[in-house]
Amino acid sequence: MTQSPAHGSTRERLHDAGVTLVEVLVVLALIGILAGVVGLSFGSGPRGDVAGQEADLLVARLNRAADEVMLTGVPMGFVWAAEGYRFDLYDGDTWQPHDLPILAAPHLLGGETRIADAAGAMVLSRDMDPGAAGPLTLEFLSRAGTSEVIRFDGLNAVRLEGAP
């Protein structure tokens, strides 16, 4: 039986018309690699509202510190400056870095954000009296021009909404 040239050429054209599974997988792998490269090219630095993120972090840490003082009765110091803050623990004789991991290391704000208020210190004690100066108010300023204000009364820290 002889094959006509028209029938053979049609079969060859149908065979060459599709793509193989290997070709599809190669294209998907290349797309995945390119997506990864694009994602990593943006870096891992903080994005968005840096002052708000720092204010939220300090609110959480101050509330945790106040809870710790209430539970243990051991006074704690909160010390701040424009570039960051730290928590100290009073052991009866001296002030030393706190031993809780969330409060132990000083927190440096970096170049994106700073605390606008003058440097200072506050002692957190079991009676939670903020002292004669009243509640502590700190303002975080970001390089982008945003501002966030937190208030701490010795018992609770809150981020003030709608603050300048």
What does this structure look like?
The model has no long low-confidence stretch (mean pLDDT 80). The termini are far apart. This protein is 37% helix and 26% strand. A hairpin with a 2-residue loop joins strand 1 and strand 2 (84-90). It is elongated and about 95 Å long. The chain has helices at 5-16, 21-41, 50-72, 101-104; strands at residues 76-81, 84-90, 95-97, 107-108, 113-115, 120-124, 136-142, 147-152, 157-160. The protein has 164 residues and is α+β, with helices and mostly antiparallel strands.
Number of strands: 9
Mean pLDDT: 80
Distance between the termini: 92 Å
Helix content bin: 25-40%
Q: Can you tell me the residue ranges where pLDDT is under 50 for at least 5 consecutive residues?
A: none
| CATH 2nd-level architecture of the largest domain | 3-Layer(bab) Sandwich
Count the DSSP helices: 4
Overall radius of gyration: 30 Å
CATH topology tier name of the largest domain: minor pseudopilin epsh fold
CATH class of the largest domain: Alpha Beta
Largest pleated sheet: 5 strands, antiparallel
Overall shape: it is elongated
- Given the helix and strand composition, which structural class is it? alpha+beta
Tell me the CATH superfamily of the largest domain. minor pseudopilin epsh domain
- How many domains, in number, for the residues? 2
**Quaternary structure type:** single chain
Q: Which sequence of SSEs, written as H and E, runs from N to C?
A: HHHEEEHEEEEEE
Beta content:
25-35%
